[in-house]
Hints:
By secondary structure, the protein is an alpha/beta fold. The chain is 42% helix and 12% strand. InterPro entries: Gal/GlcNAc/GalNAc_ST (IPR051135), P-loop_NTPase (IPR027417).
Amino acid sequence: GRVRGSPLWEMVNNFRGEGYEEELMVLEKAPEEPAGELPSLVVKVEETSTGRENIKVQEKITSSPSSPLLVLLLSSMPRGGSTLLTEMLSTKERSITFFEPLWPLQKKKCIEDEQCVTQYLADVFACNYNPDFERWLKTKDLFLSYFSSDAKECTRITDQKAKELCLKKLNLREMCLLSPIRIIKVIRARMAWMKNLLSNNSLDLKIIHLIRDPRGSLYSISKFKDWNKDPHERCLGLQEDLQSFDQLSQEFPTKLLQVKYENLSLHPHNVSKDILQFLYGDGNLPEYLVTYISTHMTNNSESHSMSTTKESKKQYEAWRFKMPQKMLKVVQDEPTCLYSIKHMQHTLFKDQKHARNSSISLFVS
């Protein structure tokens, strides 16, 4: 029989519906959805007489926390500082971090479906996924490196055989179950979709909404060959998220925090204190976070596009001095981008010359 009663299990069970497989018994279907059985179950793969793989579920007693803190970092657009903030959050002891778990869904119908995405995130928070999801995650060094310090050590091993052995020993599901703090970072979900999760009072859920001036994000996105560069599509999601945040924060003031990438870059210590106070009720910066800020946010040795080691006080508005005139005009003329820029109380630039005048503040006083 199934063990019921845990808030996480109830949440997962309640969200099941159209667009999401209730029983993902065949492994070939993964990693479209993490799905699996209960958080308190161990999944074993067995081959049946028909040659099809079935998942055999056995009960397993764990000492997993009854009500873990669930942290969702929702960034409205790529290239908005979410990797940096994820790194900072993942320094918290005993936490585990799922970096972009929606990535396998980007070409699936589920990614456009509110109920499907919410169910998927609920499953991940509940450590409720089948072995193929874990196998997929272990092939993504960048994603896996944020999961835990042990996982990071495995990704750093250069010898392939030693690395494979290290990865094999990692039981990500068990580590997830035992963690009192579970963090998910996504750039492929909408804020409005989170209302059901927020409405569940038995969950200790906190959502950080990360936003950045869309001109900065779009300029950075323009350097990536195969990425969607459409200002309307990109800014529409941002506009909707800003509007949804304003509505939801009225209803759930203690569960939502909005963080501007520009503020984090300019005032990393103060903003980090605000984040810690919001998440843990204690705004004191631990030594390891102070060290992280000094090594990652005041150093100009940028190594690659996904690097988080940058001099953040210059980086946040570097786009102003590089963005071509045509792109500046196209972005500022797009109504959804214009809405977002004004909502953030940022300066609209008349032209490229105006944008590159460093005596003009990005912030409307």
